[in-house]
Each structure stands twice: as structure tokens, then as C-alpha cells.
Amino acid sequence: MENSQTLDQSLDGRIAERLKVLRGKRKWSLDTLARKSGISRATLSRLEVGQVSPTTSVLGKLCAIYGLTMSRLMAMVETGFAPLVAAKEQASWQDPETGFLRKTISPPSDTLGAEVLECVLPAGNRIEYLEPPLPGLEHHLYLLDGALRITVDDHVYTLSKGDCLRYQLHGGSVFETPQDQPAKYILVIV
């Protein structure tokens, strides 16, 4: 019985942490979330610090606000975290149209906020993102090699090897390489 109780408390603690992260990613105050969800600020606060266990009704309301199914929320907190991912196991994806290669080099985690990517954009290519996945995300881009021109919210930056650009993304962005040079860079998203 004691072992089951420990597991339940651990799960409740992970749910509490995940709810806090979800609110934090949206930069909502507890008052804002209370208005949107109809759940009292005091209850939300106690949920996020793990003082009370969430009910199905409360989780249902929060999942609706965050655009998640309850099963997705539970999967986020039940998945174990592996702090080390060997190079050969790091997930990568290549755009068949541009040849853009995106490799996730940070261990995946639903409870940690930062993501580290290694990217390669071949010479003479342009990638345009019409809007960010979440407005206000902080980006740190370090150009390892080549040349890259980036347009962020109508500001244009030209980077050379060794340059670093830090920005918050609220609107569209464009990544372009010159005809004769690819770009290899590290991108940290927080």
C-alpha cells in the first residue's frame, strides 16, 4: 500500500509541475488562468505546488484551455526522462524540398522548456515561417559555419561564422543562405 501511495504522489507531483510549465509557456498569471478556466486562483496555486490532487473535472477544464486531451497530458507526465541521448540516437529530419536538416541534440523532455537543435541549410535556400509555434519564444542562434541572413519581425540580420543572434519571436521569420555558402548553426529555443 505504501509503495502505491508513493507512486501516486510522484505522479501528482509530475502533473503539478507540468501544469505549471504549461501556464508558464503561455506567460499567464494565475489570475489569467483562473479567469479563462473558471477554477479559483487558490485551487490553481495549490495544484501547481502539489498541495492537492487534481480532479478529473479540473484536469478536463485545464486540458481544454491548453488544447490538450487528457491522455496527452498524462502521456507528458508518465514518460520517463533520459538525460543522455547518444549521437546516433538523436532525432533528425530533412526537408525533401530544400535539403534543410534539423537535428534535435538535447534530450527530449515534456517537463523542461529549452530545446537545442543543430541545423544545416544548404546554399541558395530560403525557408519562411509565417508565424511562430508560440509567440514570444526566446531563440539563441550561433552560426558554426557559413553565412546566414535572418529576418525576424521585419528586422534583417546578416550572420557570419561565429556570430550569435538572440531574439524573441512574435511574428514571421525567414532564413536564407547565399548561392555559394550553406549555413550550419546551433539553435537554442527557450
Write a brief caption for the model.
By secondary structure, the protein is α+β, with helices and mostly antiparallel strands. The protein folds into two domains: 2-78, lambda repressor-like DNA-binding domains (434 Repressor (Amino-terminal Domain)); 87-189, Jelly Rolls.
Largest sheet composition: 9 strands, antiparallel
Unreliable stretches covering 5 or more consecutive residues: 1-9
Q: How many individual helices? A: 5
Distance between the termini: 40 Å
Walkthrough of the structure:
This protein is α+β, with helices and mostly antiparallel strands and 190 residues long. The protein folds into 2 domains: 77 residues, lambda repressor-like DNA-binding domains (434 Repressor (Amino-terminal Domain), Orthogonal Bundle); 103 residues, Jelly Rolls (Sandwich), CATH 2.60.120. The chain contains 5 helices and 9 strands, in the order H-H-H-H-H-E-E-E-E-E-E-E-E-E. It is elongated, with a radius of gyration of 20 Å.
Note the topology:
Blueprint: H1 2-25, H2 30-37, H3 41-48, H4 56-66, H5 70-78, E1 92-94, E2 101-104, E3 115-121, E4 126-129, E5 137-152, E6 155-160, E7 164-169, E8 173-176, E9 183-189
Antiparallel strand pairs: 1-2, 2-3, 3-9, 4-8, 5-6, 5-7, 5-8, 5-9
Helix pairs in contact: 1-5
Task: Supply the key terms.
190 residues, alpha+beta, 434 Repressor (Amino-terminal Domain), Jelly Rolls, nine-stranded antiparallel beta sheet, elongated
